[in-house]
Amino acid sequence: MPRQVYRFERPSRFVAGTVGQPGERTFFLQASDDDGRVVSVALEKSQVQVLAERMDELLDEIATRPGTAVPATADVDDLEPLTAPVDEEFRVAAMGLAWDGEAQAVVVEAVAAGDEPVDEEAILSDADEGPDALRVIITPGAARSFVARARRVVAAGRPSCPLCSLPLDPTGHVCPRQNGYRR
């Protein structure tokens, strides 16, 4: 089946965000451009967390290379909600992250889940066949802003139990370290 690649080169906005209340949130990556095109893909909280960590590590490593300008902190603090309506194009199965030295930009690709496991060669490829993908090419400054917001979004969830580290509901939770007693 032909592959649909939603491509954004230097989008006006690329963010991680959520819809719903803590404990019931759905996480999204959302890219938008100046023409009003908006693409949202759903993913897991852990995927947002890993993407932010890896992107930060990539930027730190690139910053050590001569002739490469990478800001140490985020330029813009994006606190706006996701652009509505948030229509899920697909659920993310795998992600790729790369540095384009020629363009001096970070490349992020989120690949859709399918009937079969995602082939690693399908990630960041220009093949005509394969799973749908969201490919975003952003500046190092935009990447730092993405990392800052993604970390904030992940941390905005439910607080952790000090004993077992599982999330606490507003009514507490049954803590395995307390032999099933409510905490």
Note down, in words, how this protein is organized:
The chain has 183 residues and is an alpha/beta fold. It is 19% helix and 28% strand. The protein is built from 2 helices and 7 strands; from the N terminus they run E-E-E-E-H-E-E-E-H. Strands 1-7-6-5-4-3-2 form a 7-stranded mixed sheet. Strand 5 (88-100) and strand 6 form a beta hairpin. Helix 1 (45-63) runs antiparallel to helix 2. The protein starts with a strand and ends in a 28-residue tail after the last helix.
Defining key terms:
183 residues; alpha/beta; seven-stranded mixed beta sheet; 19% helix; globular
What secondary-structure arrangement, pairings included, does this model have?
Elements: E1 5-9, E2 13-19, E3 26-32, E4 38-43, H1 45-63, E5 88-100, E6 105-112, E7 133-138, H2 140-155
Parallel strand pairs: 1-7, 4-5
Antiparallel strand pairs: 2-3, 3-4, 5-6, 6-7
Amount of helix: 10-25%
The main sheet orders its strands as 1-7-6-5-4-3-2
Report the count of strand segments. Answer: 7
Poorly predicted segments: none
First-residue to last-residue Cα separation? 51 Å
Radius of gyration, in angstroms, nearest whole number: 18 Å
Largest pleated sheet: 7 strands, mixed
SSE succession: EEEEHEEEH
Short précis:
The protein is α/β, with parallel strands linked by helices and 183 residues long. The chain has helices at 45-63, 140-155, and strands at residues 5-9, 13-19, 26-32, 38-43, 88-100, 105-112, 133-138.
